[in-house]
Design goal:
This protein is α/β, with parallel strands linked by helices. It is built from 10 helices and 7 strands. It is globular.
Length: 238
């Protein structure tokens, strides 16, 4: 069996400016003023880390940052949910995402779940908005609500999947599918192979140079994706 860890944003779907709108609204609710600077786009960092960057970039004192960051993080999913209709209207599915998800879900030897910088509630909101939640086992994934350090989420997902499926998952049979340098770093540091998908802000060359085990332009070639998953998952040398 092979554990398949899907990234969400810019790999499966793109919500346009909704995430940035949510950061703006929650920052204003908690801090009481508008944010002048927002987290960089498409970096793949976890939401708690992005919130800390948001506070630092907008001159929130370090002494207050921990408490305020917790308040902001707690409010993010509720605010995102309120923008569900806007997310569906302005967002989009990435090329080949539905067919790729369905094929991986249907493959007997593959266990599809999620590894994402989103909080679990936010991940479920996004996937549900685009009718994608049915293709992953959300109970065994790794989310920013588990740990703000993204590479640590690989072990979280592996432990959960090992317990749930009665099959040991480790570096040799775990594959991340993602679009960012953070996805590559997560695999290399956390213990997983990486299929880089150049559907976000990171080029195929950058993904390859960062150490992705395989790079695809998008998810449109489902047969190639399945072949690559099986090839990477059969390598027990790591």
């Amino acid at each position: 069996m092979i554990l398949v860890l899907w990234d969400i944003d810019r790999t499966l779907l793109y919500v346009g400016d909704i995430d940035r709108l949510v950061y703006r609204e929650v920052f204003r609710e908690v801090i009481g003023r508008d944010a002048e600077r927002l987290p960089a786009r498409g970096t793949g960092v976890t939401m708690p880390m992005a919130v800390r960057e948001l506070l630092a970039a907008n001159d929130v004192p370090d002494a207050e940052a921990d408490q305020l960051a917790r308040q902001i993080v707690d409010r993010l999913p509720g605010c995102l949910k309120r923008h569900g209709e806007g997310m569906r209207r302005s967002g989009q599915l990435m090329p080949g995402a539905v067919a790729a998800l369905a094929a991986v879900h249907q493959a007997e030897a593959l266990v599809p779940t999620v590894l994402t910088g989103n909080l679990k509630a936010s991940a479920e909101i996004k996937l549900s908005a685009f009718s994608l939640l049915q293709y992953v086992d959300k109970a065994v994934g790794g989310f920013a609500s588990d740990n703000s350090h993204r590479p640590a989420l690989v072990a979280v997902a592996q432990r959960r999947s090992t317990r749930a499926y009665g099959h040991r998952f480790g570096p040799g049979n775990t594959v991340i599918i993602g679009d960012s340098l953070q996805d590559v770093r997560t695999g290399r540091e956390g213990g997983a192979k990486v299929i880089g998908v150049a559907s976000g802000t990171t080029s195929a060359q950058q993904l390859a140079e960062a150490g992705a085990d395989h790079v695809m332009p998008d998810l449109a070639d489902v047969e190639r994706l399945l072949e690559t998953l099986h090839d990477l998952g059969k390598d027990r040398s790591s």
